[in-house]
Write a structure and sequence with these properties.
Oligomer: single chain
Organism: Solanum pennellii (Tomato)
Biased composition (Basic and acidic residues): 78-88
Shape: globular
Keywords: Membrane, Mitochondrion, Mitochondrion inner membrane, Protein transport, Translocation, Transport
Number of strands: 2
Order of helices and strands: HHHHEE
Membrane topology: Peripheral membrane protein
CATH architecture: Orthogonal Bundle
Distance between the termini: 56 Å
Strand content: under 5%
Strand order of the largest sheet: 1-2
Region (Disordered): 78-101
């Protein structure tokens, strides 16, 4: 099998990466949830569908359900606190918090 040059290899990797990604709309359709659904509802639907396919379904459908949940996990992930010049802005945090080792 001939070796691919760097550009061709990168193109193949990009095609593989794009083909593996799932849109939010498709993820919601697979799990049967709407944009108004809470994260708890999504997890409940996921667990129900995942278990159903584990018992008497297909591995393909089970993997689709899993990827749908992972896709929506990114949407529902809490936002990272904003930083200023690499330092955490602690102006909104309580002053009584401390780390105990």
């Amino acid at each position: 099998m001939p070796q691919k040059n760097g550009v061709a290899q990168e193109a193949v990797q990009n095609i593989k990466r794009v083909s593996k990604t799932m849109t939010e709309a498709v993820a919601r359709q697979i799990l049967g949830v709407t944009e108004d659904s809470s994260w708890e509802e999504i997890v409940q639907k996921y667990e129900n569908l995942f278990e159903r396919n584990a018992k008497n379904g297909s591995f393909y459908l089970q993997s689709k359900v899993h990827r749908a949940k992972e896709c929506l996990k990114e949407v529902y992930k809490p936002k990272e606190p904003e930083t200023k010049k690499g330092k955490l802005d602690t102006s909104q945090t309580t002053r009584h918090s401390r780390t105990i080792w």
